[in-house]
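hey so i finaly got around to running the thing on Gfo/Idh/MocA family oxidoreductase from Streptacidiphilus pinicola. pasting the sequence first so u can double check i didnt mess up the copy paste, my clipboard has been acting weird all day
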Amino acid sequence: MTAGDRPLRAGLVGVGAMGRHHYRVLSGLAGVELVGVVDPAADPAGVVRGVPVVADVQQLIALGVDYAVVACPTALHEEVAVALAAADVHVLIEKPLADTVEGARRVVEAFESRGLVGAVGHIERFNPALQNLRGRLEAGELGEVYQVVTHRQGPFPHRIADVGVVKDLATHDIDLTGWVTGQEYESVAAHTVSRSGRPHEDMVAVVGRLSDGTMVNHLVNWLSPLKERRTVVTGDKGCFVADTLTADLTFYANGAIDTEWEALRAFRGVAEGDMIRFAIPKREPLLVEHESFRDAVVGKQADIVTLRQGLRTVEVSAAVLASAESGGTVKIPSARIPTA
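ok and heres what it spat out for the C-alpha cells, dont ask me to read them lol
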C-alpha cells in the first residue's frame, strides 16, 4: 500500500523470457519503484541494472515490497504466490495461474482470505484489437454471436519446459474467448499430439460450447514456422477478425447487394458486404496490463484479470487435457457464484 504520495514498491520474481519484459516495463512505470528482483541464478544474462538481485522470495519480501510480479516457471507459481500472500504482498502472476486446478484454488483462497489484490497476466485482454472487438460485441454490432474461432501457432519455444501447449498457449484463447463474449465454457472436446519428443503435448484442436450456445474452435500448436495469432468471431451481421500480432481489427459485413453474375453469385454463397479495417490506437499491451494492476493496488477502478477468472481458465484447460486423454466430451460445471 502507498504511504502518502510515495511510489509503490514493486518486486519481480524471475527474469527469463517473459520476466525480462516485465523488468523493462516496471523499470519505467509511473508511480512505481522497482526495488528488487528474484533470480536464484543471480541474473547470469545481466538483465538487471540498479536494483538488488536476491536469491529467493523471502529476501524480496524483506526489501519491503507492496506488490510483486511473478514470472517464474508455472510449476512454482503456487509456492511463490502463497508465500507473498502470507506477507500481505499483492501479486500479478503470469498465466497460467498455476499448473493444477487444486493449486490455482489454493492461490485464490490465499489472496481472498487476506483481502489482497491478485491478478493473472493474460496479456491478450490488453491487446488493442481484442479490446476494441469486445466493445463492439457488447454494443451489439455483430448481433447474435454464432462462433468464435482462434488460430495460435508458431515455432517451438525453447523457453518452455514444464508445461505443454494447452497450458502455455491455449490458455490465452480460453481466457480471451470467455472475456470477449461474456460467456462461460459449458463443454469441450479435444485432441492432442506430441511430435517434439517432449513429455507434453505440442498441438491441440478443441471444439467447445459456451453457455449461450456459441460454438468455439481453438487450433493451437508450436510446431509451425508460420506465426499466427488470429481470432474470428462470426454472427448474424458478419464477422470480426482480430490479428493480435499486428493489433488490427477488420469487420466483414453480410451484404445486401445482389449480383447479376449468376456464376459468381453461386460461387460466393453467402452475401458479401463491406469490409472495414478499424483505426485503433495501439499502446503496448504489457504496459497497459501493468498500469491496470498498479491502479487496482491503490484502490482505483481497473480492468484486471482476477484470480477467479484465472482459476476458471485453468479449470477449462484441465478439461481440455482430460478430454484429449479420454477421447470424449467433458462438461464443465459453472463457475458463477450464486447471489443471495
